[in-house]
Amino acid sequence: MNKIASPAEFAAAIESSRLTVAVFKADWCGDCKFIDPFMPEVESSYADRLTLIEVDVEQVGDVSQEQNILGIPSFVAYADGRELVRFVNKLRKSREEIENFLDRALEVYGALQK
Predict the structure, then answer these.
(1) Per CATH, the architecture of 2-113 is what?
(2) Helix or strand or coil: residue 96?
(3) Looking at the DSSP assignment, which residues form a beta bridge with residue 51?
(4) What percent of the chain has pLDDT over 90?
(5) Which residues pair with 83 in a beta bridge?
(6) How much is the pLDDT for 103?
(7) Model confidence, pTM
(8) Using 50, 70 and 90 to split pLDDT, how confident is the model at 88?
(9) pLDDT per residue over 70-87, tens digit each?
(10) Reduced to 3 states, what is the DSSP secondary structure of residue 63?
(11) How confident is the model at residue 25 (pLDDT cuts 50, 70, 90)?
(12) What residue ranges do the domains of the chain occupy?
């Protein structure tokens, strides 16, 4: 997962016409660490359909505030600079929930491409 280091990198990443899903995380977040073991496999299984980027809310804090991220880990899908759909709450996320969100993001993205 490409790690975003600045607001400018974030802006460039979400401007892509390809579906881009930002994963908002932090090193100190226990629920973020919970998803770390399975996320590489999830990313690999979706690699041909979307791009996942990682945004550390501590390092790129202004971005998370601007995007109204209230709990982490959070997932927000973008294309062409627009937010399409989000999975943001303060609860721990399971692999199944994350994959369901990615599938929903792909559906929304597909509908907009028609």
Answers:
(1) 3-Layer(aba) Sandwich (3.40)
(2) helix
(3) 20
(4) 86
(5) 78
(6) 98
(7) 0.95
(8) confident
(9) 889 999 999 999 999 999
(10) helix
(11) very high
(12) 2-113
- Output the DSSP codes for 21-44: EEEEE-TT-HHHHHHTTTHHHHHH
* Cβ burial, residue 110 (10 Å; 0-12/13-18/19+): exposed
d(CA 60, CA 97): 25
CA distances from 109 to 4, 20, 35, 71, 79 (A): 22, 10, 24, 24, 8
pLDDT reported for residue 29: 94
Which residues, at least 6 apart from 72, have a Cβ–Cβ distance to it below 8 Å?
Answer: 24, 25, 26, 29, 31, 32, 57
Integer-rounded Cα Rg, in Å, for the chain is 13
What number is the average pLDDT over the span 13-25?
A: 96
Find, among 45, 69, 92, 85, the residue nearest to 54 by Cα.
Answer: 69
The secondary element (H helix, E strand) that includes residue 47 is none
Residue of 33, 20, 45, 26 lying closest to 93 (CA atoms): 33
Asked whether residue 9 carries a pLDDT value surpassing 90, the answer given is yes
